[in-house]
Specification:
Length: 402
């Protein structure tokens, strides 16, 4: 009897490591399935979730103490990476049938108009956002970030929702832009295609031929939803009444920085009407292009407290910024040192000495934030929303945001 119990003990000891690893793996899988169920709402995971705990139940009694110590580090890592995804909220974007995360990855900042991250580095930032539960990316033909996004979504089975936009006003120009986006993003269907930076009812009228093309592409299944991006109240008011428009991407921040034709209260009244008419609303520039960074938390609380905005696009240029924004959107506390570092961060428009005063940037700026003084471009920092669009018009590459 003594021999037999010694034999069993020896077997148990020699296979112990294997069992512990098996149990740890099963727990990890269980957590992952749990996460998928939360995010995708797919009840087919429930069966597997039930089976996994049952399998490891008989081991856990013996191994739990050892597991906790052996895998504690992994669980902490798991917590950091996956808690965001567990807590992230998702919502249907108006009547589009498209389900998006409350936090949208704003794709402008990583591209050549702003911090100009190399493709791989930019893709890593996007990937981290996707890992933390963000499923919505906003970009534009102008931003030059299709390559970053393509790299980030390569090989992902559950593709994020991608919204893009262009300035085309003819049907042919619209077709070229849609095809460019499909080719460079390597996707067949574009979730949301928008008319970029619409300024008034008149500009909407001037883009009618392009809009007709988008509607035709939507009917053919190439585009899922059609929209506009705008800094102007007049455009939101007009689009609220247009059945052709599914999504509106307006500028909203607590100080109203960048709104072209009125106050933030007037903008919110127009957005409310559009929302009630079934439009999907995802706002931009909650930090006024970076100008409001010192009051980051108040700015985010402001936009997140508006009940008629489905999602908010926030530009993020580093993994730290992604983690911080996810925490804020999930209602978690942001460490004081991170907030302090942000308060110190100050971005501004810089015009290099080799500016030739051609005035192309002045014409490009929709905010009226540039003028030519003594043969050089000079920014009005009160009006500038740090969008970086003027940089795309400068033949001398003399404009940067740093
Ligand atoms: S477009 Fe460039 S070169 Fe021309 S005025 Fe502006 S900054 Fe100067
Ligand atoms: S000056 Fe340039 S960065 Fe500033 S609002 Fe105008 S276009 Fe945007």
């Amino acid at each position: 009897m003594k021999k037999l119990s010694g034999f069993i003990w020896n077997i148990w000891k020699t296979t112990r490591t294997l069992k512990i690893l098996l149990v740890c793996e099963l727990i990890s899988q269980s957590l992952e399935l749990n996460r998928k169920t939360e995010i995708e709402g797919d009840s087919s995971h429930n069966f597997q979730m039930g089976v996994v705990p049952f399998i490891y139940m008989d081991y856990t009694c013996i191994c739990s103490c050892i597991i906790v110590s052996v895998r504690q580090k992994d669980f902490l890592q798991y917590d950091l990476v996956h808690k965001g995804a567990l807590l992230m909220k998702y919502i249907e974007l108006g009547q589009t049938g498209i389900r998006v995360s409350r936090l949208c990855f704003g794709g402008l900042i990583i591209g050549p108009l702003q911090v100009n991250l190399p493709v791989k580095q930019g893709a890593e930032v996007i990937k981290k956002a996707l890992e933390l539960g963000v499923n919505f990316i906003d970009t534009a033909e102008l931003y030059g970030t299709y390559a970053h996004i393509r790299e980030a979504i390569k090989g992902i089975s559950q593709k994020p929702v991608i919204s893009t936009k262009c300035y085309a006003y003819t049907a042919e120009g619209a077709r070229e832009s849609v095809e460019k986006a499909r080719r460079e993003l390597d996707i067949d269907v574009i979730d949301i295609f928008m008319m970029h930076e619409q300024e008034s009812r008149l500009t909407l009228k001037g883009h009618r031929a392009a809009l007709e093309y988008y509607l035709d592409a939507k009917a053919k299944g190439i585009i899922r939803a059609v929209g506009v991006s705008t800094h102007n109240i007049e455009v939101v008011e007009a689009c609220a009444e247009m059945p052709e428009i599914d999504v509106i991407h307006p500028l909203v921040n607590k100080a109203g920085i960048g709104i072209g034709d009125g106050t933030v209260e007037e903008m919110l009244a127009a957005i409310k009407k559009a929302y009630e008419n079934g439009k999907g609303i995802f706002s931009m520039k909650p930090l006024g292009g970076g100008n409001l960074l010192p009051s980051y938390k108040e700015c985010m609380d402001f936009v997140l407290g508006i009940p008629y905005i489905h999602s908010v696009a926030v530009g993020m240029q580093s993994i730290d910024e992604v983690i911080m924004n996810v925490k804020v959107f999930n209602g978690e506390k942001v460490p004081e040192e991170v907030q302090a570092a942000l308060r110190k961060k100050h971005r501004k428009l810089h015009i290099d000495y080799w500016c030739e005063g051609c005035g192309k940037c002045v014409m490009r700026c929709g905010q009226g934030a540039l003028s030519i003084v003594d043969g050089k471009a000079v920014p009005d920092r009160e009006k500038c929303v740090l969008c970086g669009y003027c940089g795309s018009a400068c033949p001398q590459f003399a404009i940067k945001i740093n």
